[in-house]
Amino acid sequence: MDTTVAAPAHDRTPVLTVGTVVWLASELMFFSGLFAAYFTLRATAGGDWPPHDVELDVLTSGLFTLGLVASSGSMQLAVRAIEHGRLAAFRGWLLVTLVLAAAFIANQVHEWSSLGFAIDSHSYGSAFYVMTGFHGMHVVGGMLAMLLLLGRAGSGRFGPADTPAVEVVSYYWHFVDVVWIALWATLFLLR
């Protein structure tokens, strides 16, 4: 007589999800270090912060910030679409997300080319360019991940079973958006 008792079935979090969350935690520590450096520079600046030559277009950057925040919504709609097997809707929402991200990066490039200070002008300039530059690289990284998903979506074998891959890209994208909100508030609003 077999007296073996079957273990209860558990829904386990996919390893890909766990790995992504751990990686995002390390990215959070990286950006926390940038914020710590910024506030240390600010506390030790001894004069006006930001310096007098710093004139940032808060309204325009705010509008592109709203666009980036909206891209989190379109990314989430892409996740919901692939969960339900709606491939055309998935592609459409992912393209909306990419367009919003590209507009954000285009604005950042325009902004960098028109600012009256440089990375070596003063400590604020160094902090501004390093913080926005690293964030911009993260946005571009997210865009590349989305392009990879779009490529896979065209393979004919992409569907609801691929939801975990889309979800981890969405986790990354939401992280990038939240970090930007904190960066924008710190660099553009906090005087």
What would you say this structure looks like, in words?
- The chain is an all-alpha fold and about 190 residues long.
- The protein has helices spanning about 15-45, 60-85, 85-115, 125-155, 165-190.
- The longest helix has about 30 residues, at about 125-155.
- It has one domain (about 15-40, about 55-190): Cytochrome c oxidase, subunit III, four-helix bundle (Four Helix Bundle (Hemerythrin (Met), subunit A), Up-down Bundle), CATH 1.20.120.
- About 20% of the residues are buried.
- Helix 1 (about 15-45) runs antiparallel to helix 4, helix 1 runs parallel beside helix 5 (about 165-190) and helix 2 runs antiparallel to helix 3 (about 85-115).
% residues in beta strands: under 5%
CATH topology: Four Helix Bundle (Hemerythrin (Met), subunit A)
Anisotropy-based shape: globular
Largest sheet geometry: none
- Roughly what is the average pLDDT, rounded to an integer? 93
Number of strands: 0
Please estimate the helix content: over 70%
The ordered H/E elements are HHHHH
CATH superfamily: Cytochrome c oxidase, subunit III, four-helix bundle
Q: What is the architecture at the second tier of CATH?
A: Up-down Bundle
Unreliable segments (pLDDT under 50, ≥5 consecutive)? none
